[in-house]
Each structure stands twice: as structure tokens, then as C-alpha cells.
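Exercise: predict the fold of this chain.
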Amino acid sequence: MANIMRVAEHQNQRKTATRSRHIDVALAGNPNSGKTTIFNNLTGARQHVGNYPGVTVEKKTGTCEHHGIKMSVVDLPGTYSLTAHSGEEMVARDYIINERPDVVVVILDASNLERNLYLATQLMEMNVRLVLALNMSDVAAARGIKFDLGLLSQLLGAPVVPTVGHRNEGTSELLHAIVSAATNEQPEHVSVSYGKELEDEIGRISDLITTSGTPLGQYPPRWLAIKLLESDQDVRKKVGSEEILGAVEQTAERLEKLFGHPLEVIIAGQRYGFISGACTEAVRSTVEARHTASDQIDAVVTNRVGGLPIFFGLMYLVFHLTFTLGDPPMGWLESLFGWLGKVIDSWWSPGSESALRSLLIDGVIGGVGGVIVFLPNILLLFVAITILEDSGYMARAAFIMDRFMHKIGLHGKSFIPMLIGFGCSVPAIMATRTIENRKDRLTTMLVVPLMSCGARLPIYALIIPAFFPHSWHGPMLWTIYVIGIILAVCSAKLLKLTLLKGQAPPFVMELPPYRLPTLKGTLIHTWERAWLYLRKAGTIILGISIILWALTNYPKKTDFGRVYSAEIAAAESAYESDPETLAAKMDEIEQAMQAEELAYTMAGRIGHAIEPLLRPMGFDWKIGTALIGAFAAKEVFVAQMGIVYAVGEADEESDPLRERLHESYTPLQAFCIMLFCLVSAPCMATVAVTKRESGSWKWALFQLGGLTTLAYVLTTVVYQVGSVFTAGAG
């Protein structure tokens, strides 16, 4: 009776929704079926991207209108089935059951119809109103495949609409079918028949569920019974009734003895049998099977010999274009923030001291601006990745690298984010979204910072020429990069054997046909990623920037070890007739004063306090202070060392700073600095993005603490062992 009342209530809600001219639509489909392209065609720029509550799975929503009827459209995560083996499958399933959209549109790859229909059969069992979008119909036609749409619709109990997503064909017809399905008071439902033995047991368990009073009225009893027989652990937890679960176990044991196979295999086989029968009736092939253009290209790009060189060549081209084309706009942004800082500085009189001015210029603009300047590189990198993904090549790249990645317990898809990490860890961690398995995704994002990003290059460029002969420059840089790769591989393997233990999923990624990416799709995907970077990471980065500003500016020193006012007066008197020498002398005095001020700040005091902890690595308080500032961004280490050593504004080509470093440290200490900067705490932008993508501060802080601990232990071992050898050699 309760279920009947819920159905009646739902029908009343549907009528009310129809009268108010609003329809809720969910898009479901396999990965690479063109679902996102259809979503973009329906909603255009009227989109919103976020996350589903409590999980890191991305949620896309949008709106559209057809003949005065407004629709809310949700793009569900791409999934092959609705059995809860992954976060994406659970999100898609729970959304359909809990939110009860008026219509579910299943996007089908028309050129691989039988495999794509497996998801549709599971949705049919949930008694939802379905519309089937037969996407990529042009590819199917090119392969000589023809469909009897009327018969196929009748067999599957849902309207079938042919579409060509990348050309925006069939969108109007699809909208019309959605409206018709939503307003149909008596939709036709077709069920898969599982054979007499299974059907009898499904019926018996369905009746038991109905009469047991379980708090699962929103779930169709037949669907629950099938899921229980499939050993769906999530459904078992939801049911909770020992009586029902005991009956299911007895049934499963008896039927598995009868059939000689696990029930989930039998059920899947029956679904594919239903699909095969429908396709045999309604699908015709007009020509003999032949190699498609995709097959011919794959013979080259996935070749064991030629595939890797092609892949690395493409990746080199992507990085070359990204950083070559990205440099000018990065310079423009740096100039913009420099101009903005001068404008704000002009609000105060020259020479006046103001905490607010320092906060705005050094904290907010310096911190957030230092992150935003990387936006051109991120945009260009994601444009390239989007083009490679939408064209179908990225699936091949993962396929090529899968054999090697499986040896360290990861999926082939993990290789792409790790490769991007050589450019910047932030977009690399964002790129882990393509990895379906959560444990693989977490493992990859945790080890990505070990790939030596572009921000570390200024540190290497400063130190290597200062301590090593010219002939060693290339080998030393290569050594640092290789160490990072080896550590990433070993760390990933360790994580997969311990904290994130779990067998790597089988490599079942399909190789979709090659398609020409659309400008609209590329721009939408790129903007989504860039906006998430700016919006989510930016707020955390602003907070951390202010904290770092406070640490490096307070407390203020009032009692100096030198009488700088007297030194300034003496310099003005001595060099009054020589402006150039006077300016140089004044700079020297100012730099010495800045160094003394920095040593007095909280960052300087922390540097002094942790010096005993740093000594086993061969570091002093000056290096420690610079490392604190480098948490904002790795390349800040160079500027901080310039302040500590009173050589003014310094970059990686600063000869005075190189000379001071060469006087203060040994080549072994210099190598340890580079090693520690390679392995230790990632920059604040990386921490912020790890928190966002993992959905938890736990993993972001674990990454921060774990890498810093690893860096400390490794650098200490290298310095101590190296000291023994250098002492012996001496």
C-alpha cells in the first residue's frame, strides 16, 4: 500500500511538473559515447560544474528550453553499468533512484550498439522513462550499419533518436522525444527475461522485499532482487534484512549449482542475449566487415615499436607549444600584476610604512598573482589535452603505457598526469580525473609532485652553475629529473602495496573511433578546468599567501645591530658627487637591513629554531628560512636566498648570489638543496588542488607531510654518506 501511495504521489508530482513546463533530465552513457558532446549541444553555455555531495565525482548541470518547456539537464558520470564497483557507478545509480528525473536519456555509440545497450537494459529494470540517443550514427553508416528505428524502439520500449553529436545533428528531435516521454502518462516498460528458474526466484525475492517492510520503497522490488542476486554489496547494505539476505544466499547457492556459474555471470549473459536478439531483429549490416580508418591508424600509433616514439613526439610538441606560446601571456599577466601593485602603492605617500599596503601588494597580489600567472600555461595545456582526448588519441596513449604502468600497480591512464607533472603539478593533479579507479587516482595525485616541475628549474639553474663545472651541468640536471622519476615509481608501488592496496583494474578501456574535435567542445572543456582552478584553488591560495606574508613580515624589527641611518648619512656625504656609486652603496645598505629584518621575523625565527633539525641535511637557518618562503611557490626559494644573503632582488642568473652561495656551501650541500627541493613539500597551489581533487584535507596533508618526511630522510642519508666519502677523499 505504501508503495502504491508513493507511485501515485510521484505521478501527481510529474503532472505538476508538466503543468509548470519544467522537466528534469539525466544523461547516462558509456565513456566515449559522446555523452558530454550531447550535453553541450543541449545546454550550450548554460552550464554549472561542481561535485556531487560527499564525493569527488564531477557533477555537470545545465538548462535548455524546447517550445516553451524548460529543462534541467544533469550529465551523469560515464559508466558501463550500474553495479556499484566505482564511485561513478554509485553516483549515477543513486542520482536516478533518489532524484527521480522525469526522463533518462541513454547516449549510445551506434557503431558499438550491443556493448552500449548493456547500461540501457539495467535502466529498463529500474522502470525509468527512457529515451535512447543513437549517437555517432554517421560512423555507423560509414561502416555499413543500418537500423530499423521503429522496430528497435518497440523492442526496447523507448523512443530511439539518431544523433551526430559533433555536428549537432538530431538535437531538436532528441528534445522533442524527451518532452514526449515526460508527458506520456503510460510509458511502455520492457523487461529482460532471465529464464524460468531465475524469474521464479526473482519473483519470490521481490515479494519478500515488498512484504518485509524494508525502508526501500523508492527502489523497484524487482530491481532490488536482481541486484541482490548479482551480489551487489551496496544494495546488500541498504537491505540489511537477515531474512531477505538469507533467502538470497540460499537461492544463489542452489542456482549456481544448477547453472555451474556465478549468478552475476548468468544474469549478464541473459542481458547480452536480450540485446543480441534485439539487434539481430533491428540492425542490418549492408557490407562485409572491413578495417575502418581507425583500425588502420591504430596499426601505426599503437604499434609496439612505433607507438612510443609517436607518443613521446606528440607529448614533446604539446609541452613545447604550451610553454612557448604561454610565455608571452605569462609576461603580460606579470606586468599587469606589477602595474596593479604600483597603482596600489601610489595610494600611500612615498616612504610611508603601512601594514595594509604590504598585505595588499606582497600578500594578496604577490601570492595570488604568482599563481594566476600560470593560467596561460594551464589553458594551453588543457586545450592540447582536450583535443587529444576528444580526437580519441589519449585512449591510445594510455593503452600504449598500460603494460609498464601495471608493473607498478597503476593504470595506463596514470602516465598522462605524471608526464604533465614535468610542466606543473597543478594541471597534472587535475588531469587525474580521467582515472576511474579511486585508489589509482589518489596514488597518482600523491606522487605527481615528484615529477620535477618547471617551478623547480630556477633553483637548479641557480645552483648547478655555482658549484659544478660546465661539463657537469647537463648530467647533473638529468640526474635530478631521473631521481624524481625513480622516487615516483617506487612511492607509487609502495602506496599500492600498503595504504592504497588493491589490484589494478583490468585494462578494459575501449579505443573509440577517431573524431575531429569541435571548437565548442574544446573551449567548454578547457574553460571548465581553468575556472575550477581559479575558483577552488584560488581561495585556499589566498589564505596561505596571507599567512606566509605575515610570517615573513612580522614581528617588525626596531632595534638593529647596525646604525643604518648613520651609514646612509655617511654614504651620502662620501659619494655626493658620484651618483652611481651612491646608488650602489644605498642598495647595499638597504639589502643588509632587509636581511636583518627577515631574520627577525617569524619565518626567520622558525629558520633559526629548526636549524638543529636541518644540520643533519647540511643546511643552516638561511636555507631553512628560504624553504619556508618557497612553500608559496618553489621558485621563491631563489628570491628568498637573495634577501637572506643581502644581494637584493635575485633570480636564477644572479652571479652575486651564486658567489655568496659558493663561498658558504660545498657541492655536496648544493646537491642536497636540490634534492630536498625536488622531493619536499609541494607548493601551496598543489596542496590546494590535491585537497579539491581528493575531496579531503587528509590526503592533501598526507602528501605534504609524507613528501617532506621522505625528503628529510633521503637528504640526510645522502649528506651523511657523502660527508664520509668526501672526508675520506680529503
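Check your answer against the key: The chain has 33 helices and nine strands.
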